[in-house]
Each structure stands twice: as C-alpha cells, then as structure tokens.
C-alpha cells in the first residue's frame, strides 16, 4: 500500500501550535492569517525605555497606539498600492494589510508620559520608567553614622 507523503501538512500543524503559543503568551490572539507583524527593537536608557517599530508606508495618523504600565499595543494597516507592468506581471515582497503587535515591557512605565515620533518609516515611543522601576543609590554619611545618627542620601541612578 502506498501512502502519500505530505511533509508540509505536518509543518503547518507545527506552525499553528507555535502561533497559538505566542498568541497566548504575548496577547496577540487577534493576529490572523494575512496579518503581519512589524519588526521592533526595545532599548533601556536608564530612566526610560525606547521602543522602535519599522512601519514604512503606514499613515501615522491611522495608527492605534495603546500604552499601559507594562505593555504596548500598536495596530494599523498598510494599504496596497497596485501596480502593473506592461506584461501584467505583478510581484511584491512587501506585506500589506492589517497588523497588530503587543509587546510586554520588562519594567513598569509612566504610560501617561509616553512620547511618540514617526520619522523615515519608523515609529519611536519613549516610555519613561515608573519611579518604582528606577534604582536608587543610598549613601551613608560616615561622620553622622559614627555619632549614632542615621543620615542617608538617595539619588536616582
């Protein structure tokens, strides 16, 4: 008896399992086939985080940006601009359609103080850290501690 080999069917099943895992973990359950996710990078600058997303061809006024104390969610759509050559052949490596991206932040931020900038196809969010997320250095005054006093100074790091 011959059995037809379908290697891609098994790979598709594995892909769906990975998608479900990340949707549950990152809160991107609304991401469906046909949607895409923009590339992102997150940097820690001490007193603030900066989140940068590659969004070329997106109308910044149409972006839906939501920031909570511990996560950022960005949604929007890149609309297709149809073009045809004389022969009628069309191809594109650019992903079009709706997108949604939820990113968990490593520390709490002051979401009401978030600043956004869209330049050269990149969206940059500056997210000031919450006071609890900042570290403070405590220094003791040696002269005061020698006399039994408890004097300490704190400064933000």
Structural class, by secondary structure, is alpha+beta
Alpha carbon gap, first and last residue:
71 Å
* Percent of sequence in beta strands: 25-35%
Into which percent range does the helicity of residues fall?
10-25%
Q: Can you list the strand order of the major beta sheet? A: 1-2-7-6
Q: Average pLDDT, to the nearest integer?
A: 79
| Helix-strand sequence | HEEEEEEEEHE
- Alpha-carbon Rg, integer: 24 Å
Low-confidence stretches: 28-32
**Total strand count, please?**
9
- Per DSSP, the total helix count is 2
The largest pleated sheet is described as: 4 strands, antiparallel
- The shape, in one word, is flat
Summarize the structure.
By secondary structure, this protein is an alpha+beta fold.
What attributes characterize this protein structure?
157 residues; single chain; flat; alpha+beta; three-stranded antiparallel β-sheet; 9 strands; four-stranded antiparallel β-sheet; 2 helices
Structural overview:
- The protein has 157 residues and is α+β, with helices and mostly antiparallel strands.
- The chain is built from 2 helices and 9 strands; from the N terminus they run H-E-E-E-E-E-E-E-E-H-E.
- It has helices spanning 7-26, 142-146; strands at residues 40-44, 48-54, 64-67, 71-78, 97-104, 115-119, 122-128, 136-140, 152-156.
- Strands 1-2-7-6 form a 4-stranded antiparallel beta sheet, with no helix packed on it. Strands 3-4-5 form a 3-stranded antiparallel beta sheet, with no helix packed on it.
- A hairpin with a 3-residue loop joins strand 1 and strand 2 (48-54).
- The radius of gyration is 24 Å and the shape is flat.
- The protein starts with 6 loop residues before the first helix and ends with a strand.
- Mean pLDDT is 79; it is low at 28-32.
